[in-house]
């Protein structure tokens, strides 16, 4: 009997000690439960994980969210005694230090995958700030509004902050509202609309360039639109998002692009430095004096910053376009790149079944990135697998008054032993450009040099601009096809084209 009493007493003591421990554990788990805050000015709490679901409530910036589970880009949360789904990309983890990147160049491609061969989803401009999601070798995964993609780490600066979203939202008003954007504008000549977010799904019809469609929802890089009374799907990189917000009442500000930028006492590079600013910092513009902005500093002092090291929020003009062109840059130069063939015009087909239309587009996109990094305005005659007539390609050069038109091709002939690269021109005023570009190529690629030749091609003959056509090797030669279809060869070839174009325009400055 005494043993039973003693046993019960011990059990009772153990239970008493376990209760506070259990309470402690539950408290720790509650405190460590995933918590996020709303980073947008407003955020809809929805019945399901998507923009098409009904709205339960509208949340405000900095509202605290208790995360219950996650599904893709959406999280199921509890807030204000309500439960529902919110867009994860418009929230921020409490207390987490986040990285953000600032673009150092204009027209920086955002790619689907960390590869130069991957599809382009969109572009960043000089000074654009984006959230960094991850890093891989020379690539950085970013969140830019509705887009998640990869950019080259060579053209960005990465900083760290504890409240990156709030900092970024000040400059990117279009990303602060969940139900923005409202419409999607087609930017390619034509794109297939499908009934499901899959390339193998049924075709509903064709959306054409310039057409606008109401956005219903999204699934990663697929956009759900209203299409002829039905719900259709298409890839996001075939169009652009229209924004409806206005920010005309915002004070004009400059944003620092480079770490260590000098803020000076007077509008001169010889004036004493007041402080060094970091990429991403913003200052209100008081006045403009020549190439300098007079700005309001945080300590109520005024200072000056050069306009070539900042971007402004009053328009979308990049700082490159404000600069006078200097040697080694292409500021103010408009170049049209013409990826040969496309659509039902496949061009030549290699022995290894390489399609010319595919490699010309990959080459043009890679060259475009290099030229834009130097400050050029670059227009592609096609940026997807569509057919563009030869005369339309010429018209694009005329329409933009291009200083250079570069048509990119790969060659073929019945004799499989023929190899090498060739540069063609037609009019005498095109010859000098051809010679400079060909010399740049010869310094980079190792295949046979077939020289600069006159060629009777319509895109050259009918072109009033300085136009050339380059054949970057023979797909009909088995060994050469294997070489010229590699990423390494395209890198070298585009570097040669880039250097030739740059040398050509540098020479004009010396005349």
Features:
five-stranded antiparallel β-sheet; SH3 type barrels; six-stranded mixed β-sheet; alpha+beta; 511 residues; single chain; 9 helices
What layout of secondary structure does this protein have?
Blueprint: H1 2-32, E1 35-38, E2 42-46, E3 55-60, E4 64-71, E5 74-79, E6 82-87, E7 91-93, E8 98-103, E9 108-111, E10 120-124, E11 129-136, E12 139-144, E13 147-152, E14 156-161, H2 164-169, E15 183-186, E16 190-194, E17 203-208, E18 212-219, E19 222-227, E20 230-235, E21 239-242, E22 253-256, E23 261-264, E24 273-277, E25 282-289, E26 292-296, E27 302-306, E28 310-312, H3 319-322, E29 334-339, H4 356-373, E30 377-380, H5 390-399, E31 404-411, E32 421-425, H6 428-442, E33 449-454, H7 458-461, E34 467-474, H8 478-484, H9 487-510
Parallel strand pairs: 29-30, 29-31, 31-34, 32-33
Antiparallel strand pairs: 1-4, 1-7, 2-3, 4-5, 5-6, 8-11, 8-14, 9-10, 11-12, 12-13, 15-18, 15-21, 16-17, 18-19, 19-20, 22-25, 22-28, 23-24, 25-26, 26-27, 32-34
């Amino acid at each position: 009997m005494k043993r039973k009493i003693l046993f019960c007493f011990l059990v009772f003591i153990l239970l008493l000690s376990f209760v506070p421990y259990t309470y402690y554990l539950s408290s720790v788990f509650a405190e460590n439960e995933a918590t996020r805050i709303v980073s947008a000015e407003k955020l809809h709490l929805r019945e399901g994980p998507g923009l098409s679901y009904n709205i339960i409530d509208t949340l405000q910036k900095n509202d605290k969210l208790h995360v219950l589970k996650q599904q893709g880009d959406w999280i199921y949360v509890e807030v204000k005694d309500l439960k529902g789904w919110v867009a994860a990309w418009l929230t921020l983890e409490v207390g987490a230090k986040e990285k953000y990147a600032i673009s150092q160049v204009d027209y920086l491609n955002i790619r689907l995958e960390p590869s130069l061969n991957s599809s382009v989803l969109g572009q960043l401009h000089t000074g654009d700030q984006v959230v960094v999601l991850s890093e891989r070798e020379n690539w950085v995964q970013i969140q830019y509004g509705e887009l998640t993609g990869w950019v080259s780490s060579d053209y960005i600066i990465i900083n760290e902050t504890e409240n990156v979203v709030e900092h970024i939202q000040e400059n990117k008003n279009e990303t602060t509202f969940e139900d923005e954007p409202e419409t999607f504008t087609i930017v390619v000549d034509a794109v297939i609309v499908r009934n499901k977010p899959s390339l193998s799904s049924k075709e509903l019809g064709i959306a054409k360039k310039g057409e606008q469609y109401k956005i219903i929802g999204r699934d990663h890089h697929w956009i759900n639109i209203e299409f002829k009374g039905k719900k259709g799907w298409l890839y996001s990189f075939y169009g652009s998002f229209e924004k409806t917000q206005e920010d005309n009442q915002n004070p004009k500000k400059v944003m620092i692009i480079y770490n260590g930028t000098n803020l000076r006492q007077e509008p001169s590079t010889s004036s004493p430095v007041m402080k060094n600013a970091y990429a991403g910092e913003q200052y209100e513009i008081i006045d403009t004096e020549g190439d300098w902005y007079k700005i309001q500093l945080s300590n109520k002092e005024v200072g000056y910053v050069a306009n070539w090291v900042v971007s402004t929020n009053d328009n979308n003009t990049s700082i490159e376009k404000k600069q006078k062109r200097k040697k080694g840059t292409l500021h103010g130069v408009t170049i049209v790149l013409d990826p040969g063939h496309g659509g039902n015009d496949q061009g030549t087909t290699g022995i290894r079944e390489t399609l010319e239309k595919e490699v010309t587009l990959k080459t043009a996109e890679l060259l475009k990135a290099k030229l834009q990094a130097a400050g050029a305005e670059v227009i592609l005659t096609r940026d997807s697998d569509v057919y563009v007539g030869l005369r339309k390609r010429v018209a694009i050069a005329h329409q933009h008054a291009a200083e250079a038109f570069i048509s990119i091709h790969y060659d073929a002939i019945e004799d499989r032993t023929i190899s090498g690269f060739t540069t063609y021109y037609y009019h005498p005023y095109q010859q000098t450009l051809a010679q400079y570009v060909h010399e740049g190529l010869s310094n980079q690629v190792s295949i046979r040099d077939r020289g600069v030749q006159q060629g009777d091609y319509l895109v050259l003959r009918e072109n009033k601009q300085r136009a050339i056509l380059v054949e970057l090797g023979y797909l009909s030669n088995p060994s050469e096809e294997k070489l010229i279809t590699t990423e390494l060869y395209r890198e070298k070839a585009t570097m040669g084209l880039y250097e030739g174009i740059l040398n050509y325009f540098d020479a004009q400055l010396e005349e």
